[in-house]
Amino acid sequence: MRATAGQVVQLCKGHTQEDMIKPPPQPLHVLFRFLRSNARRHMSASGYCPKCNTTHRLPTTMEARHQAQLLHQTLRSKNPPFTISRRGKMVGVLLCQDSEGRHKTLKAFAGSVNGKWHLNGWSPVVGGKGTAPNELPTYVNIQNTQNKLQVEQNDLAQRLRDCPPSASDADIALIRLELKEMIDKRRQLAWTALKETRKHQHVSNFCGEVDLLQHVFARNTRQPATDGSKAERQRIKMPAGAGDCCAPKLLADAARQDLTPLAIAEIFVGDTTMKKEGEFYDACKERCQPVLGFMLCGL
Ligand SMILES: [Zn+2]
Ligand SMILES: [Zn+2]
C-alpha cells in the first residue's frame, strides 16, 4: 500500500498544534523524499479476495527489507549463487513463523535463472517441485518439436532471401506460404505448452483451500458488465508468467511448509528502464494482484 496524501494528513493530525507550528517550512524536495520513503515502508503484497469481499495484504517491514538487501548484496558479490542477466532479476524474501513460533526466511527469484527453475535453498515454482516446465514430459516434447521447427523455419527464411531474381512469383509465394504455416504451427505449439504448465500450477492458501492458479485468476478478474447485468462478464486473459513472480512462489512455498507469513520484501537486482538497482517493489498489478487475494486468504 502506498502512502497517499490522505495518510500524510492523518500523521499530521497526531501532532499537537505547537508541533504543527514549530517546524520551519520544508522545501518541496524534502516533502517528496518523505512521501517516497513513507511509500516504501508500506510496500507489500496484496489482492482482492471475492470470498471475503476484502483486500488481503501482507506488509513489508524494516527486517524484511534488510533481509532482501542482504540477498541483493550476495547476488552482487564475487561469488553469487547465480549470474544476473542484462535484463535484471526480481528476488524476494518472506519472513515466516512455524507452529512453534520459530522464525524462518524463505527466498525466491522470479522466473528461472540460467535456464534453471529450481535451485537448492530457493522456493520452487508455484506448483512445487516436479511442476517446472522442464520437468513436464509433454512440455519437453513440445519444446523439442518447436526447436526442430525453428531450424526448418530459419532454412526457409534463408531460401527466401537467396531466391534469384529469376525466381517465379509462384515459387516465392509457395515459400512464403510454407513459412507462414510454420510460424502458425509454432505459435499453436507455444500455446499448447503454456496450457500444459498451467495444468500443474496448484496453489493453496492459509484456509487450506487448493485451486489451480488459472481458475483463481479467472475468478478474480471478472469484470461486472457495464450495463450492470450479472450474466455478461468480461474476463482478462491470464498473462504468460503469472505465478512466476517472487510473491506467489514464496506464499505457495510457505503454505506447503505450513508456515505463517509475517512480512515480505521484493528487491530488483539490475538496472533497466523499468526498474532500478536495489529498489523495493510491490507485488505486481498484472500477474500477482489477481491471485494474491486467494493466496493470502486465511492469514
Ligand atoms: Zn508479479
Ligand atoms: Zn479471503
Write a structural description.
Strand 7 (about 225) and strand 8 form a beta hairpin. With about 300 residues, this protein is of the alpha+beta class. The chain has three domains: about 1-40, no CATH class; about 45-130 and about 200-295, no CATH class; about 135-195. The protein contains nine helices and nine strands. Helix 7 (about 215-220) packs across helix 9 (about 290-295). The model is unreliable at about 1-25 and about 35-40 (pLDDT under 50). The structure holds zinc ion (2 copies). The site of one zinc ion (ZN) has 5 residues, from loops.
What is this structure, in a nutshell?
The chain has 299 residues and is an alpha+beta fold.
Radius of gyration: 24 Å
SSE topology string? HHHEEHEEHHEEHEEHEH
Give the % helix: 40-55%
Bound compounds, each kind once, are: zinc ion
Distance between the termini: 17 Å
Strand pairing plus helix content: what structural class?
alpha+beta
Task: List the total number of helices.
Answer: 9
Tell me, briefly, the overall form: elongated
Q: In percent terms, what proportion of residues is strand?
A: 15-25%
Return the domain count. Answer: 3
Mean pLDDT: 85
Spans with pLDDT under 50 lasting ≥5 residues?
1-24, 34-41
Give the total of beta strands: 9
Q: Name the assembly state.
A: single chain
Q: Could you give the order of strands across the largest sheet? A: 4-3-9
Main beta-sheet annotation: 3 strands, antiparallel
